[in-house]
Amino acid sequence: MHQAVRPLLERLNGRPMRKLGKSRRELFEEVERAALKPLPARTYQLAFRKKARVNIDYHVELEGHWYSVPYTLVGKPVDIRHTEGCVEVFLAGRRVASHVRSAQKGRFTRRPSTCPPPTGSTLSGHPRASSAGPKAWAPRARSWWRSS
Question: Is the model's pTM score more than 0.70?
């Protein structure tokens, strides 16, 4: 079909228009060709957007995978922009997190910079691991420490 239409299109573009006295091809060469720019070096990457709310564990969910955002944003609505290889999280138009896209459902992608600081009492999560020891605890806790 293209082979049959091509000669007809060439003839149409070469024929002078009544009111302008020039053909479509002549107008293109005179006016539009100079305005053309080269195609970009990178191909266009399709992006999608989704609205989400930051969970209490400072993560947002996208297609079954969880991505971390700064812990100070817990409970706030954010916009997620995702492409084939990247996930970006925005708050009020400002990018607050960016991750490489993962297809693993039920898994987490997190950055240490988005995590809350340690509570200070322990780093391992158990009171006996505290460097301060029982002296920093209340008297009832000290008695428990001695009895165990």
Answer: no
For 78, residues 6+ apart whose C-beta sits below 8 A from its C-beta are: 51, 52, 53, 54, 60, 69, 89, 90, 91, 96
What are the beta bridge partners of residue 68?
A: 59
Confidence class of residue 9 from pLDDT cuts 50, 70 and 90?
Answer: confident
**Is the predicted pLDDT of residue 125 greater than 90, yes or no?**
no
Report d(CA 100, CA 86) in Å as an integer.
5
- The pair of three-digit structure tokens given for residue 10, joined into one six-digit string: 């060439």
3-state secondary structure 13-25: HHCECCCCCCEHH
Q: Label the pairing between strands 108-109 and 65-68.
A: parallel
pLDDT tens string 64-111: 999 999 999 999 999 999 999 999 999 999 999 999 999 899 999 988
Side by side, the strands of the sheet bearing 48-53 are 48-53, 77-82, 86-91, 94-100
What DSSP assignment string belongs to 21-42?
SSBHHHHIIIIIGGG--PPPSS
The contacts of residue 43 (CB under 8 Å, 6+ apart) are none
